Amino acid sequence: MSSVAAAGTPRSRTQVAYLRYAAGKAGGAVFSLLAVLVTSFFLFRLIPGDPVKFMTGGRPVSAEQLAAYRREFGLDLPMWEQFTDYCRKSLTGDLGTSYQFREPVVDKITEALPNTLLLTVTAFVLYTVLGMVLGTRAAWRHGRLGDRLNTGLALVLYSIPSFWLGLLLIIVFAVGAGPVPGLFPTGGMESGGTEGFAYVVDVAHHLVLPVVTLVAVEYGQTLLVTRSALLDEMGSDYLTTARAKGLRDDLVRRRHAVPNALLPTVTLVFVNLGRTVAGVILVETVFSWPGLGGLFYQALSVPDLPLVQGLFFVFAAAVILMNTLADLMYPLLDPRVAR
């Protein structure tokens, strides 16, 4: 009887509800990944261009040589055979061989991934902290000059295309404009010829402008969501009660208002991380950063179908994974979500 009673406790029912909720979200994520896998195969075959002619380097070749290239990469097979072969290999972790690099796609992605993570994680941490801190201050001082300035600047920067802002920063702070000298490299990740601590400083120097571009464009959304969520909480009765007990305004904000306003902000944090990884293509291209985004642009110009498909799957998987983690965080912050 005791075990039966225990199984029916509110806590156990909550755990079961959460497990069902998590299983549903995980199943949806797996289905989305399979849909991306299928979509990427057909989507990029609409791109104009012949990868076989690219592999010849523009040299005049015979029809027999072109046919040999097509056989080597399976491009002579019917579309349905190419598709089934692609799905079978992808499910085992084989994303094919790059046409232009003649290397496994997985190896090229693994090689470029750390560079992208260095850029995106650095920018992500900075714009998340900046957006949450400024958003909290803007909400708590709603209507004042600081609130209007922060909100206005966030809206302006959030509406600016990242590639345009990156080009502007290169012109002003890398090339130099008027009295402003060129302070930073125009692109790349390193100057070469450095080791140890000097190498770290060199990479950090190259990292400044791409990170500033991402932070400037992305922090505004975090600020606006944090500000909006906190404004919704500020009229609540529990804050009035906390103030009536004599708590300082700063403590009321930090201990009561901010924790209860975190649900939409925490969700946005997870979503933004996946979106930043997927959306770094333009910034990496503008700054010639040797990451996944620059590799995607390079593969798209061929088109290098296996590499484009593999990178597209990685970008989509990052977004889907972060959205799923955000969904799984909801019930932990607010148990009513899983009911």
List keywords for this structure.
disordered N terminus; 15 helices; 0% strand; mainly alpha; 339 residues
Class by alpha and beta content: mainly alpha
Number of strands: 0
Spatial gap, N to C terminus: 26 Å
Question: What is the radius of gyration?
Answer: 25 Å
Strand composition percent: under 5%
Helix percentage range = over 70%
Can you count the helices? 15
Q: What general outline do the C-alpha atoms trace?
A: flat
Poorly predicted residue ranges: 1-7
Could you report the average pLDDT, rounded to the nearest whole number? 80
| N-to-C order of helices and strands | HHHHHHHHHHHHHHH
Biggest sheet statistics: none
Q: What does this molecule look like?
A:
By secondary structure, the protein is mainly alpha-helical. The protein contains 15 helices and no strands. It has helices at residues 2-7, 10-43, 51-55, 63-72, 79-90, 105-140, 145-158, 162-176, 196-234, 237-244, 249-260, 262-278, 281-286, 292-300, 305-333. Helix 6 (105-140) packs across helix 9, helix 6 (105-140) packs antiparallel against helix 12 (262-278) and helix 10 runs antiparallel to helix 11. The chain starts with a helix and ends in a 6-residue tail after the last helix. The relative contact order is 0.14.
